[in-house]
Design brief:
The structure is a single chain. This protein has 320 residues and is an alpha/beta fold. It contains 11 helices and 15 strands. The strands form 3 sheets. The protein has a 9-stranded mixed β-sheet with strand order 2-3-7-4-6-5-9-10-11, sandwiched between helices. A 4-stranded parallel β-sheet has the order 12-15-13-14, with helices on one face. The radius of gyration is 19 Å and the shape is globular. The structure holds threonylcarbamoyladenylate and magnesium ion (MG). Threonylcarbamoyladenylate binds at residues 26, 28-29, 31, 55-58, 90, 92, 104, 107, 109-111, 113, 115, 133-135, 172-173, 175, 215-218.
Length: 320
């Protein structure tokens, strides 16, 4: 069975009503969606993605008012929902019983998000249930930002990918939780700590180190290319002696290029949003070509740049 790629919401709806999983566009990355209230459909998501069952899924809902069907919302969470949804924010909330343990991997919290992409917003509005959707990549690999990316890795395994064009944000949602009058960022994204503080007046803590990680998907060696990827300044890696076919991922056009290295520029203009939107596409492209090694330079560690550095850090080569 060839996976069909198309723009037909009714087709996507048909498969989802049938308990199947389909690729869906969001403004962050493409999701692998199934009926969040159907345990078999949710189990299918884990199977297709080859994702360990201990790693919970985000529940995507149609609108703000339906969140209360699935979770309890306190004051500051309500402000975050009001300010940032629909959009690239996921919030962890105490779950209600209607959300099954398989979706949350046994946790009493559920991750909720309202995607902003018009096709998926329309699809959610038409469906009588919310959608569990992890990023539509095989477990551990780079997230997809186009429908073709989804098909490249999952062809024949899922029936349909709803094609909504290239993701505009290009990096997964910021995952937050309000706890003890603080906002905890479990995963960096395009909505920054400053944005969150501005909206709520609350201080922000970013959980980064391995010991602190509470969202299982933030495991090391995630978002990883098959080609070994290293971080740092390209000129520090080689003292003029390039022995491997090398791709360099750089933020802007470098003043000086090393010969023997192919450069891939994230944003000619030096714009972090544009860099984020190009990141996963470039990583996949380089991975398909026959490079032996990837060196990814650091981007400015501000705003969405923190999320770019975070993903590249997790993509770093580690002996598996
Ligand atoms: O932008 C996004 O968030 C995309 C699009 C498709 O919505 N989705 C996405 O899902 O990135 P996924 O499954 O690839 O990453 C979700 C992360 C994982 O790290 C998972 O461990 C964490 O969210 N997560 C989900 N539910 C959770 C829960 N109940 N408690 C703690 N962490 C949770
Ligand atoms: Mg993912």
């Amino acid at each position: 069975m060839e996976t069909i790629v198309g723009k037909d919401i009714q087709k996507a709806k048909y498969f989802l009503l049938n308990g199947d999983v389909v690729g869906i566009p969001t403004e962050t990355v493409y999701g692998l969606a199934g009926n969040a209230l159907n345990e078999e459909a949710v189990a299918k998501i884990y199977a297709v993605k080859q994702r360990p069952r201990f790693n919970p899924l985000i529940v995507h809902v149609a609108d703000k008012k339906s969140i209360q069907q699935f979770a309890y919302i306190e004051k500051h969470a309500a402000t975050l929902i009001q300010t940032f949804m629909p959009g690239p924010l996921t919030i962890l909330l105490p779950k209600k019983d209607i959300i099954t343990d398989i979706a949350t991997a046994g946790s009493n919290k559920v991750a909720i998000r309202i995607p902003q992409h018009p096709l998926t917003a329309e699809l959610l509005k038409e469906l009588p249930f919310p959608l569990c959707a992890p990023s539509a990549n095989p477990f551990g690999y780079v997230s997809p930002t186009t429908a073709q990316h989804v098909k490249d890795k999952l062809n024949g395994i899922i029936p349909y990918v709803l094609d909504g064009g290239a993701a505009t944000v290009g990096i997964e949602s910021t995952i937050v939780e309000v706890r003890d009058n603080q906002i905890i960022i479990h995963r960096s994204g395009s909505i920054s700590g400053d944005d969150l503080t501005a909206a709520t007046g609350l201080p922000v803590i970013i959980l980064n180190t391995k010991e602190e990680i509470e969202t299982p998907g933030q495991l090391k060696s995630h978002y990883a290319t098959d080609t070994p990827l290293f971080r740092g300044n390209i000129t520090d890696y080689f003292d003029g002696n390039i022995t491997k076919k090398t791709a360099a991922i750089v933020f802007t056009t470098p003043a000086k290029k090393m010969s023997g290295v192919d450069y891939f520029v994230l944003s000619e203009k030096g714009n972090l949003q544009e860099a984020a939107a190009n990141l996963f596409k470039l990583m996949r492209y380089i991975d398909e070509a026959d490079y032996e090694i990837i060196i990814a330079e650091y981007v400015p560690d501000e705003g969405i740049g923190k999320a770019i550095n975070d993903r590249l850090e997790r993509a770093k080569f580690s002996a598996k």
